[in-house]
């Protein structure tokens, strides 16, 4: 009886051992399957561009893209620098064009003024030409042309614009601004045109009319046209031209007029004698 019980107990332990072994085998199999599944998933993750293997796959492409971006940025900066240089060159050319255009206009105006001054020997016509130059080329509104009477040492007004003759003062050589200009032969300009107030003894501009160093008269300007706020370079060139060429034209026309009068007088005497 006891042997029978031992056999049953042995069989039971054997069965329990087999169950434990079977469960261990099944657990081991499950571990192997899970390990295989994890290895497969890890492999897939490494192959994905955004997985753990992305760095090894994308790093070369990223470096290439960064290099290309850098090259494009450098090329862009070079283009911007060149555009800036071209803009500066265009601005410089535009300024030079304006200067050249201004110089061409100045030369044209000087040529026209000089031609007109010497186009006639009639004294009144010469004064009219000078008046037109002062109005149209310089832009003066109120001014006068005075010639020196050396016998009395005074300036006599021979032409005026925008001014009543009675309002102009008697100017003596060497006295006041106008008289000093007539004495020294040096042009006079007020320092500030905008703050200038009308004063017939104190013009804003006084230009001597000279033949070499000999002053025969002056041009005095008291007011500019409304659209004229300052003197340009061409104006000073015109003043220089007037100082010399206008004086020569006036002097020549006066000599011609005097000679014409003398010739007329002589011809009159001859006519009387022959009759």
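Q: What amino acid sequence fits the structure above?
A:
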């Amino acid at each position: 009886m006891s042997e029978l019980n031992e056999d049953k107990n042995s069989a039971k332990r054997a069965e329990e051992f087999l169950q434990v072994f079977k469960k261990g085998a099944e657990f081991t199999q499950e571990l192997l399957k899970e390990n295989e599944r994890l290895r497969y998933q890890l492999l897939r993750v490494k192959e994905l561009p955004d997985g753990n293997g992305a760095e090894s796959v994308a790093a070369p492409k990223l470096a290439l893209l960064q290099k290309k971006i850098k090259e494009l940025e450098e090329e862009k900066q070079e283009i911007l620098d060149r555009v800036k240089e071209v803009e500066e060159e265009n601005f410089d050319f535009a300024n030079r064009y304006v200067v050249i255009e201004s110089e061409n206009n100045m030369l044209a105006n000087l040529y026209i003024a000089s031609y007109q001054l010497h186009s006639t020997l009639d004294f009144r016509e010469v004064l009219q030409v000078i008046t037109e130059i002062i109005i149209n080329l310089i832009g003066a509104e109120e001014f006068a042309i005075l010639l020196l009477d050396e016998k009395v040492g005074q300036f006599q007004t021979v032409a005026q614009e925008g001014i009543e003759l009675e309002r102009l003062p008697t100017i003596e050589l060497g006295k006041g601004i106008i008289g000093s200009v007539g004495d020294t032969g040096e042009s006079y300009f007020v320092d500030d045109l905008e703050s200038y107030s009308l004063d017939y003894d104190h013009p804003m501009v006084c230009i001597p009319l000279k033949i070499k160093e000999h002053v025969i008269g002056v041009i005095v300007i008291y007011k500019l046209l409304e659209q004229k706020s300052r003197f340009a370079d061409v104006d000073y060139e015109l003043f220089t031209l007037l100082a010399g060429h206008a004086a020569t034209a006036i002097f020549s026309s006066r000599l011609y007029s005097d000679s014409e009068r003398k010739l007329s007088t002589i011809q009159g005497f001859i006519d009387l004698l022959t009759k």
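Q: And what stands out in the fold?
A: The chain is about 65% helix and 15% strand.
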